[in-house]
């Protein structure tokens, strides 16, 4: 399967990608722990079947020193013992926020309450924005068939400052 389109090779696509990337800086520079951000982005990318984003976030987690067992168990986080209660709350919110069409009520009251217990308002705002943005990024990647496998770990770190 070959990519259909390279968004950044198009003037409109490149402008959009620049602004989309700039918006992500708000979350990256927030008080939401970076490991939690990457765990959430990895899980949402797995759900959405985005090879590029799954590649990016699994490699960035490994590059940051996350043990392979945690990275490998993200897909089965509910049935594992390697995540903190706060990470589990973020993963639950991310899954329910991603599967809106599959789950009638969207994010359940219990999941929301659990997230509120572990994150302050700024972190929660960052988490909500992160879930929305990674879902959008996944859709872009899937639509254009952006292939996973070629990302160099830490490749996005230069744009974070």
Structure overview:
With 161 residues, this protein is mainly α. The mean pLDDT is 93. The chain has helices at 11-28, 34-48, 51-63, 68-72, 85-98, 109-118, 121-144. The radius of gyration is 15 Å and the shape is globular. Helix 5 (85-98) packs across helix 7. The chain starts with 10 loop residues before the first helix and ends in a 17-residue tail after the last helix. It has seven helices and no strands.
List the helices and strands and how they pair.
Blueprint: H1 11-28, H2 34-48, H3 51-63, H4 68-72, H5 85-98, H6 109-118, H7 121-144
Précis, in short:
The chain has 161 residues and is an all-alpha fold.
What is the CA-CA span between the terminal residues? 34 Å
> How many beta-strand segments?
0
**Number of DSSP helical runs:** 7
Helix content: 55-70%
Q: How many strands, what sense, and barrel or not for the largest sheet? A: none
List the helices and strands in order: HHHHHHH
Q: Using the CA coordinates, give the radius of gyration.
A: 15 Å
What best-fitting shape do the alpha-carbon axes yield? globular
Strand content is: under 5%
Instruction: Decide which structural class fits the backbone.
Output: mainly alpha
Uncertain ranges: none
The chain-level mean pLDDT equals 93
């Amino acid at each position: 399967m070959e990519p259909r389109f390279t968004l950044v090779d198009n003037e409109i696509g490149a402008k959009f990608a620049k602004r989309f990337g700039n918006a992500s800086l708000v979350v990256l520079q927030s008080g939401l722990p970076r490991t939690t951000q990457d765990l959430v982005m990895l899980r949402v990318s797995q759900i959405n079947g985005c090879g590029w984003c799954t590649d990016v976030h699994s490699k960035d987690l490994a590059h940051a020193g996350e043990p392979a067992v945690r990275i490998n168990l993200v897909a089965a986080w509910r049935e594992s013992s390697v995540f903190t209660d706060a990470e589990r709350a973020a993963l639950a919110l991310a899954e329910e926020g991603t599967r809106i069409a599959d789950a009638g009520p969207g994010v359940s009251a219990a999941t929301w309450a659990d997230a509120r217990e572990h994150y302050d308002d700024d972190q929660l705002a960052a988490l909500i924005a992160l879930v929305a943005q990674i879902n959008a990024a996944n859709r872009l990647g899937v639509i254009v068939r952006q292939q996973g496998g070629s990302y160099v770990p830490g490749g996005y770190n230069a744009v974070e400052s």
